[in-house]
Each structure stands twice: as structure tokens, then as C-alpha cells.
Design brief:
Number of helices: 3
Structural class: mainly alpha
Number of strands: 0
InterPro entries: CCDC40 (IPR037386)
Organism: Micrurus lemniscatus lemniscatus
Largest sheet: none
Number of domains: 2
Protein name: Coiled-coil domain-containing protein 39
Shape: rod-shaped
Keywords: Coiled coil
Distance between the termini: 113 Å
Helix content: over 70%
GO cellular component, one term: cilium
Amino acid sequence: ESQSKTNKQVLTKGDFYYKKLELKKKIKETQKNAEECNKTITQLERSQQNLNLAIMEKERIFSGMNYEAEEFDEKIDQLQAMKRQNLSDIVSNQTRVKHMQAVKEGRYSLLCRSEIMTRVEHHKVEERLHTLNTVLH
């Protein structure tokens, strides 16, 4: 029995004191770690807010650019239509000038001698212009 008593350690007041100091130290360290975690969380939340604001700004800018791109596309379509019309007008005017030049130089000969033939030729010319217009589009 005396051997078993000697194998058991007797806890003294000093042992409790040091154990208490150790626990206080661990508690302070845990509190310090918790404060650091809270600071990190706060910093991350601020960063998240800043990123959200930046994303919203980028989305606003992107939306504006999309609107401008749509306006440019419409303008391009209008300009292309104007270009086609101008080309058609140029071809028409060149043909007219060619005929007038021929009349001026006395080389013009009537293509159609009757009203019916004039209408047929007019229809052919309109079909040709329509075909040219389709090709240009």
C-alpha cells in the first residue's frame, strides 16, 4: 500500500497555482486569436463591400457601353442603307448621263418604237435594278 501511495502524485497548492496560470495564459491567447479573427472578418467584409461596389460600377459602365454599341449598330445600318441608295443613285445617274451624252453626240437610237415596247423595256430595267439592289444588300 505504501508503494501505491508513493506512485500517486500528491497535488500541492503550487501545482494548482501553475495550472491556473497556464489556463489563464491559454485563455488570453485564445482571446487574442479571436480578436485577430474578428479583425480579419471585418477586413474581409469591407473588401467584399468594396468589390461589390466595384462590380456594380463595372456593370453600370458595361450597360452604358452596350447601349452605345446598339446605337452604333443602328447608325451603321442607317449608313449602309444610305450607301446602297447612293450607289443605286450613282448607277442610275451614270446611265442617264450616258444616254444624254449619246443624245448630245447624235448617237442615240430609240430602243422602243411603240408604247408597249417602252413598257416592256421599262419593266426589264426595273427588274435589273431590283436585282442589282438585291446583290448590293
